[in-house]
Inverse folding.
């Protein structure tokens, strides 16, 4: 079957009429005038009903359209107009309209598919992620995507579907690189890291769908998928470029951010101070140029070391001729052997190398880390030192505590002006929704924000804990309206001493009946307190209507009878499993079985379970499978001011 010249003339007139009425007609007028549109359409219509020549004719018209700058959507619209006009023309003129329709429909679908393939190849042939001169060599995440996207484009241009199987390795390599120390510094912010991970996951999903459509030779859908994929890759590249720029201009601060968080991971984590000893004397005797030369040699050697072990090491340069090296995933002895071999290549330079096991430190917030650096500088008389065991670290923790006590006047700081509260979410493990928030107290000491763990024992020793708990209660009351927009349940920490105080209890009851009346207040008490003083808890529940959560549950695991009594009385509603157990759940069969026992017991007692210190997806997945009710930890949400969480909720930012 071949179209007559009269029919072709009719179809071209219909197409011209459509173009004149099209919203983009005026914008595309110059394009239509310069392009040999009528000629290419007429040539195409002469042969497109010949199955052997349809794809070739469609490819030719697509090439001509591309050469003349006609957009894909416009050309596709033209083809649809011609199809509709042809169907209208033949309506009622054929004895077997179904066969005619199928033949026309097949020809047009083949045509659109071939056009889409040509436009797909053209789009893939356009510019990659970066110009050839872009500096991405040392930015590993960008390097991975630049390489992957280049291979994807070549696979499309060359129609090499086998290459897609190798492209899947990008997923593994990218996810592994996300765990490298330098990368963790680059996207240290939890929201940025999650956005990078989620964007990458979506891109991988789109790539799989693209591959499927290419296998099925459904190029119309493949073209649209690739256009979306290309935009998503460019968007991720723009985000990574911004993060790397921030990293390059803010390395030392991001390094300390990383140190603050590595204690929450399950990996071995060490901080190493590398110092050129007697640098001041070298500068005095030989001039600062000599000292600078030594530092440059050390840094070049350190760059080479990190480049060979970037899955485990990252470093930044300090301000006083020292270098800070962080190690993740290496045991202390392996790190020490690696550094010993490295220093052997610089044996003429007198280096002090001191490493400390970060997971042994009592607290890893910014004030403590600053003091830790000071402590390590005091150890420079040692050529090589590894502070590994709890016994090694005990003097460090004691020294840091003494320094804090000497610099922090707790009595002066116990004032509303210096008190801050942050809140951390408790997340439903099944739905992923935030179910409650825990309030955490902070003290502002100049530019330092001190978490309660640093000073709480000292407050108890000084008899100031009731004052602190009262300030927390006042701060929660002041934020009550904002909290009520976030949740209906708020957990607060309270010392037994405060609960035994009639004055504090009166303030607590007044707050619950007043500003906090819209909130369900849950008081957290440690397992030891609960089990040693169960009657106090029951009396407070009956007389004051308080509800309780057993905090740090599972470490003592002694008097289950008291837990049963408290649960049956209704005083205790929640079991918060100690975070040290949660951190071991993916690598200890005994701990997994303990969680199963805790869940069954809680279920029998009608208690809700909460797992603290959730810091990765594997842990969350296990807890979800074991039907632990709620999770809490940096992986699910860091402590932030109430207003920050409220803004995040209002703008629906995850």
């Amino acid at each position: 079957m071949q179209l007559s010249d009269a029919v072709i003339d009719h179809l071209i007139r219909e197409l011209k009429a459509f173009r004149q009425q099209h919203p983009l007609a005026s914008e595309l007028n110059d394009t239509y005038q310069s392009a040999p549109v009528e000629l290419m359409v007429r040539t195409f219509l002469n042969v497109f009903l010949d199955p052997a020549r349809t794809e070739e004719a469609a490819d030719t018209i697509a090439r001509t359209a591309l050469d003349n700058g006609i957009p894909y959507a416009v050309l596709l619209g033209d083809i649809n107009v011609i199809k509709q006009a042809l169907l209208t023309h033949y309506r009622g003129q054929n004895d077997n309209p179904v066969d005619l329709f199928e033949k026309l429909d097949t020809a047009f679908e083949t045509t659109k598919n071939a056009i889409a393939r040509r436009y797909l190849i053209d789009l893939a042939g356009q510019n990659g992620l970066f110009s050839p001169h872009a500096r991405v060599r040392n930015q590993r995440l960008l390097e991975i995507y630049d390489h992957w996207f280049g291979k994807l484009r070549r696979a499309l241009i060359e129609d090499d579907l086998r290459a897609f199987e190798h492209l899947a390795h990008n997923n593994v390599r990218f996810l592994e690189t996300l765990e490298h120390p330098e990368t963790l510094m680059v996207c240290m912010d939890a929201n940025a890291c999650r956005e990078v991970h989620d964007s990458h996951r979506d891109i991988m999903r789109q790539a799989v769908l693209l591959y499927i459509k290419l296998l099925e030779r459904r190029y119309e859908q493949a073209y649209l998928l690739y256009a979306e994929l290309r935009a998503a890759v460019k968007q991720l590249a723009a985000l990574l470029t911004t993060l790397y720029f921030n990293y390059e201009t803010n390395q030392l601060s991001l390094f300390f951010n990383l140190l603050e968080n590595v204690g929450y991971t399950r990996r071995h984590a060490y901080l190493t101070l590398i110092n050129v000893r007697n640098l001041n004397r070298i500068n005095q005797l030989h001039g600062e140029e000599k000292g600078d030369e030594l530092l440059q040699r050390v840094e070049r050697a350190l760059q080479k070391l990190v480049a060979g072990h970037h899955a485990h090491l990252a470093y930044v340069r300090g301000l006083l001729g020292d270098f800070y090296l962080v190690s993740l995933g290496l045991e202390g002895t392996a790190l020490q052997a690696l550094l010993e071999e490295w220093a052997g290549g610089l044996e003429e330079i007198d280096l002090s190398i001191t490493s400390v096991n970060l997971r042994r430190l009592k607290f890893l917030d910014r004030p403590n880390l600053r003091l830790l650096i000071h402590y390590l500088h005091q150890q420079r008389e040692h050529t090589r030192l590894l502070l590994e065991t709890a016994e090694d670290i005990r003097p460090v923790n004691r020294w840091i505590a003494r320094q804090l006590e000497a610099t922090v006047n707790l009595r002066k700081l116990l004032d509303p002006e210096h008190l801050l509260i942050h809140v951390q979410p408790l997340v439903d493990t099944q739905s992923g929704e935030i179910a409650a928030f825990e309030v955490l107290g902070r003290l502002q000491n100049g530019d330092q924000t001190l978490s309660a763990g640093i000073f709480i024992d000292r407050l108890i020793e000084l008899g100031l804990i009731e004052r602190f708990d009262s300030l927390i209660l006042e701060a929660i009351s002041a934020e009550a309206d904002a909290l009520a927009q976030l949740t209906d349940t708020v957990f607060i920490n309270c010392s037994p001493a405060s609960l035994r105080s009639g004055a504090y209890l009166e303030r607590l009851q007044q707050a619950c009946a007043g500003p906090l009346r819209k909130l369900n207040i849950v008081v957290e008490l440690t397992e030891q307190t609960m089990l040693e003083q169960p009657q106090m808890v029951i009396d407070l529940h009956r007389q004051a209507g308080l509800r309780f959560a057993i905090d740090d549950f599972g470490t003592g695991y002694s008097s289950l009878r008291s837990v049963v009594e408290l649960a049956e009385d209704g005083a205790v509603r929640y079991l918060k499993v100690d975070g040290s157990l949660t951190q071991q759940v993916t690598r200890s069969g005994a701990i997994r079985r303990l969680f199963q026992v805790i869940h069954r017991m809680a279920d029998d007692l009608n208690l809700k379970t909460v797992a603290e210190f959730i810091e990765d997806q594997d842990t969350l997945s296990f807890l979800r499978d074991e039907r632990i009710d709620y999770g809490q930890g940096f992986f699910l949400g860091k402590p932030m001011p109430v207003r920050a969480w409220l803004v995040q909720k209002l703008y629906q930012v995850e």
User: Anything to note?
Assistant: The domain at 251-407 is CATH 3.30.70.270 (Alpha-Beta Plaits). The longest strand covers residues 434-445. The longest helix spans residues 219-249.
